[in-house]
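Hi all, posting the design record for the shared folder.

TITLE: backbone redesign
STEP: 1 of 1
STRUCTURE INPUT:
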């Protein structure tokens, strides 16, 4: 492929999205939250320089963020240097009329052990704090604050909208 071919391919969705029918923002945000909460596992992509990693990981979603407890792993090598992450949630492919998947771009933060946020996330997930304190090494907690959410859902056609919708999430951090 030439540079122009790569550019054309990279811009495909930007051009298509410009003319597609958009869903009402409030309706879209409700659909997004419902889909996120109906799942509990994502693929978390981290990277820094030449190093990239994609980790399947369980999450909870509350307070406008994704929360992931992790024993450790190479994703922390990238997170130390680059807080920009992407995560994907998706259903098994069963045909074009049943597409459903989401890509979330955002920033990650490793929450301090046993801080107020850490304890609140453990309580939300129903993990006993004393059990966490007894571990030989503390569990790490990754918090991902979304900045952009792209949602592909064939069911959006019922609203008269394009199957692919996106929303920029703006909030104070």
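Okay, here is what came back for every position:
SEQUENCE:
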């Amino acid at each position: 492929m030439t540079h122009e071919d790569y550019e054309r391919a990279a811009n495909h969705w930007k051009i298509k999205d410009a003319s597609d029918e958009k869903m009402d923002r409030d309706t879209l945000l409700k659909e997004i939250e419902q889909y996120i909460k109906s799942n509990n596992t994502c693929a978390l992509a981290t990277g820094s320089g030449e190093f990239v990693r994609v980790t399947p990981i369980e999450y909870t979603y509350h307070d406008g963020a994704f929360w992931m407890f992790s024993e450790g792993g190479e994703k922390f090598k990238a997170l130390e240097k680059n807080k920009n992450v992407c995560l994907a949630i998706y259903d098994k492919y069963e045909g074009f009329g049943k597409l459903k998947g989401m890509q979330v771009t955002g920033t990650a933060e490793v929450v301090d052990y046993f801080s107020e946020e850490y304890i609140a996330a453990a309580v939300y997930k129903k993990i006993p704090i004393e059990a966490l304190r007894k571990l030989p090494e503390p569990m790490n907690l990754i918090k991902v604050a979304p900045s952009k959410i792209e949602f592909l859902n064939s069911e959006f056609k019922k609203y008269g909208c394009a199957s692919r919708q996106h929303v920029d999430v703006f909030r104070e951090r």
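COMMENT: The chain has one domain: 23-168.
Let me know if anyone wants the other runs.
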